[in-house]
Amino acid sequence: MGCILYSILNILTQLGFATATVILGGQTLASVSSSHGLPLVAGIIIIGVGCLIPCFVGYNLVHTYERYAWVMMLFIMCCLWGLGGKAGFDINAQKPLEDTGRALKADISYGAVVFGSFASWVPVAADYNVHLPADMPTLRIFTLTVFGIYIPLCFTSILGAALVTITEPSYVSALGPDGSTDGLIAQVLFPWGEGGKFLLVLLAFSCIANNIPNTYSTALSIQALGRPLAIVPRFIWVVFAFLVYTVAAVAGREHFSTLLSNFLCIISYWMAFFIVIVTEEHFIFRRPGGQLGVYNLVDWDNPSKLPLGFAGILAECFGVVGAVVGMAQVWYTGPIGKKAGATYGTDLGFELAAAFSGVTYPPLRWLEIKMTGR
């Protein structure tokens, strides 16, 4: 039961990220060809097809591509830092917009967005870490995984924040009215002429490396919904995922920034209680000498030996309650979230979701084990 529910949430998460990614890639590709009038829809479809093709070549080749794709992207990011610095970063440009006191809700809410982006790798990490050597130390896997996500996320987030401080009028006007940055990045690379456009094309197609895991893990999660779906060849679910996020991207292409920020905040809610539940299960109930002892990997596909999932589902429900009372979105603000901010409230959804689930899961799981023995 719990596996089905969390698989559905993961499918929605990966499709949501895939949608945002192909919109961004399509926008960037369209900004390269502004003089030739490449429609945004065409750019989205090109990026979408580019994300689909590598999913048919097998994990080993995909892993090899992902291992080296970041090198060129790091070079381009460093170029953006240099060209942006030459244009002139002004750290005081955003001072009038800064919040203070109880109005600091924007900073906390932005934290929810960053958390949603960072934590979205939690439900898919095992899809790829499972291919690591079985004798690799767990601390090394943990360290490489965390810093492999944390360093590039911080690096690019700070870069984006720096670029929007450029006060040159041409750069200011290049920033999209909805906050989209494709035009701004194109403007930063503009001094390099055709070379800058070439880098912009590479940057647009870098979305492929980001979207391969989204597409592949969506297919795996669909197969995890039940045996009837598991026997369907995986490539069919890959094509299905491609069609869904490409159509969704075309439909939401004009609202990228709003779609991304709202989506990431909502994703952070379920990620919060999912992380807490999995962590408590691992360190409390699955530790050596714990109530269940270490994992019996032989039973991974034996439903009669696996937990029923009632404790996880109930703890999730409590987490949802925490998210609802603490959230602060355009369309709804919970009572606690409303009191935490001066005017529009503060988004405390993921903090309260984690807290509510973290308190309720251990006793519920203890009771489930006592009643079922698993």
What would you note in describing this structure?
The protein is mainly α. It has 16 helices and no strands. The radius of gyration is 22 Å and the shape is globular. The two termini are 14 Å apart.
The residue ranges in which pLDDT falls below 50 over 5 or more consecutive positions are: none
Main sheet makeup: none
Termini, distance in Å?
Answer: 14 Å
Number of strands: 0
Percent strand: under 5%
Number of helices: 16
What is the radius of gyration computed over CA atoms, rounded to a whole number of angstroms?
A: 22 Å
The proportion of residues forming helix, as a percent range, comes to over 70%
What structural category arises from helix and sheet content?
mainly alpha
Overall pLDDT level: 84
Helices and strands, in order, run as HHHHHHHHHHHHHHHH
Shape from CA axes? Answer: globular
What's this entry about, in short?
Helix content is 71%, strand content 0%.
List the helices and strands and how they pair.
Layout: H1 2-32, H2 40-52, H3 59-87, H4 105-119, H5 122-129, H6 138-163, H7 169-174, H8 182-189, H9 193-205, H10 207-223, H11 227-230, H12 234-251, H13 256-285, H14 310-326, H15 335-340, H16 349-372
